[in-house]
Amino acid sequence: FPGKPLKLSLATEEIATFYAKMLDHEYTTKEIFQNNFFHDWRKEMTSEEQEIIQDLAKCDFSEIHKYFVEKSEARKALPKEEKQKLKEEADKIQEEYGYCLLDGHREKIGNFKTEPPGLFRGRGDHPKMGMLKKRIMPEDVIINCSKDSKIPEPPEGHKWKEVRFDNTVTWLASWTENIQNTLKYIMLNPSSKLKGEKDWQKYEVARRLKDVVHEIRARYRADWKSKEMKNRQRAVALYFIDKLALRAGNEKEEGETADTVGCCSLRVEHIKLHPRLDGQEHVVEFDFLGKDSIRYYNKVSVEKRVFKNLQLFMKNKDPSDDLFDRLTTNFLNKHLQHLMDGLTAKVFRTYNASITLQEQLKALTNPEDNVAGKLLSYNRANRAVAVLCNHQRSVPKTFAKSMEILQAKIDAKKKQVEEAQQELKKAEDELEDTKDAKAEANVEKKKKLLKRLEEQLARLNVQATDKEENKQIALGTSKLNYLDPRISIAWCKKFGVPIEKIYNKTQREKFAWAIAMANEDFEF
DNA sequence: TTTGGGGACTCAGAAATGTACTG
DNA sequence: GCAGTACATTTCTGAGTCCCCAA
């Protein structure tokens, strides 16, 4: 502290380490983060510390930071045996606490540890970033198990907040988190029977939507003319949810979270209307932050009636007013429930994602391709879905570099192709002159070589395109949460692609139900 | 009768960790 | 054969959706 070390109380010191560990992160440069942190930090200080430490800017965390950097490096540099030992210890803990017994089956738990204390990191412009996330004590934890089971013992000298026996819910333990005052749960791993069955159900609901979606579309198109403004807004919103795979957009408490929206919570400022744009008519330009503060930007040509309705909804409103001021997700979902049992707004996302994958696979797969080529088609189809759902990622740090390396490979291959072309020419000339069998064989050999090189070049080019197109797109989310795995499994079986090529071990465990179920004829 | 909050679950990208490849 | 790095996988926990219930 101003230039000289200061001995802190244990609690104060621990919180200081939370901040020091994050020094490299952009978070710590933000004023809100600093203010929230300092406010919460001071609350935990002794009165003497409060007296001394009145200004965060005067605190120098660099020594603490350095300590942790060194510690993590020391850990990395540990000899093999030591690392092995650590791993074994972790495995032992996993073995003891990572499983539960459900209906007589041993099932893997998803998150079997409570979250450690630290500084809250919200996504985007979060008003609570930097606040202190407190340590969870046994006294905060509710245990949920069967009456006749062996009830887990709390740590020595502690007791649980509560032990209950509720078999209508799936969680094993829960606690209330102190930042947003919401519940957190210990639940099963996606590979469990329970989660698998729910996953299956989800896709079955989406498949049922397939049967009635045409009627529903006809219905909402008709409702664009509804006399009731509420219904008209609902019909336009549903059109966006269906066509653009937008999320429902529940209302959120202002000031508690980052300012993000979904369909029903869109504000006037989030869209622009262009009667004409780039040769298209009735273009709506969307620009807003969605879940996780991921930007949604899109220009879409819409039906004239939708366009007119939007103009009407925006009339005499401020930019910060709700676009669909008469609409709530509750009202929308009630309507959907009425149209089809189990139908809610999010089902459209699942349905459109899965049907898009199926259609794209049909359109893009060439049975003549080798496995690599087919996988490329698969990734393209997957990508189409990710684009639809707006699943983004930040550009990988090493992207530019690895792209350069790939480009260098392509250039080298090009050169090889050129050389092979010349060699072939030479061989052909020679054959022209000599017309002997040896020269002919040589021509064939050179032809083969050229062909192989050209194929390699083509493959590299495709790889580069694939990489470039994938730069900002995250495929994982749709693969894990939106695409009926049976579509992919059927595709694999039909085209002789090993399932391991598209699903890794964890994913195969999660989709075990589908692997057991789908044959090559499966249709979503 | 809506509205608001609690509760339980799915979905989300970043960060940490593990593995495989390359020079 | 080994270290360093690129890439893949796993973990983590925040951020949504949607239902229910009570005032």
TrEMBL record:
- Domain DNA topoisomerase I eukaryotic-type, first and last residues per copy: 119-496
* Any one cellular-component term (Gene Ontology): mitochondrial nucleoid
Keywords tagged on the record? Coiled coil, DNA-binding, Isomerase, Topoisomerase
GO biological process entries: DNA replication; DNA topological change
Coiled-coil residues are 403-470
What is catalysed by this protein?
A: ATP-independent breakage of single-stranded DNA, followed by passage and rejoining
What SMART domains does this protein map onto?
TOPEUc (SM00435)
What the entry lists under Pfam families is as follows: Topo_C_assoc, Topoisom_I, Topoisom_I_N
| Keyword Isomerase attached | yes
Query: Might you give the EC number(s) for this enzyme?
Result: 5.6.2.1
**So where's the catalytic machinery, residue-wise?**
482 (o-(3'-phospho-dna)-tyrosine intermediate)
- Please give the InterPro entries that the UniProt record associates with this protein: DNA_brk_join_enz, DNA_topo_DNA_db_N_dom1, DNA_topo_DNA_db_N_dom2, TopoI, TopoI_C_dom, TopoI_cat_a-hlx-sub_euk, TopoI_cat_a/b-sub_euk, TopoI_cat_euk
GO molecular function annotation = DNA binding; DNA topoisomerase type I (single strand cut, ATP-independent) activity
Q: Does the keyword Chaperone apply?
A: no
UniProt record similarity statement: Belongs to the type IB topoisomerase family.
Its biological purpose is as follows:
Releases the supercoiling and torsional tension of DNA introduced during the DNA replication and transcription by transiently cleaving and rejoining one strand of the DNA duplex. Introduces a single-strand break via transesterification at the specific target site 5'-[CT]CCTTp site in duplex DNA. The scissile phosphodiester is attacked by the catalytic tyrosine of the enzyme, resulting in the formation of a DNA-(3'-phosphotyrosyl)-enzyme intermediate and the expulsion of a 5'-OH DNA strand. The free DNA strand then undergoes passage around the unbroken strand thus removing DNA supercoils.
Q: What name appears for this protein in its UniProt entry?
A: DNA topoisomerase I
Q: Which organism is it from?
A: Onychorhynchus coronatus
Organism lineage: Eukaryota, Metazoa, Chordata, Craniata, Vertebrata
Gene symbol? Top1mt
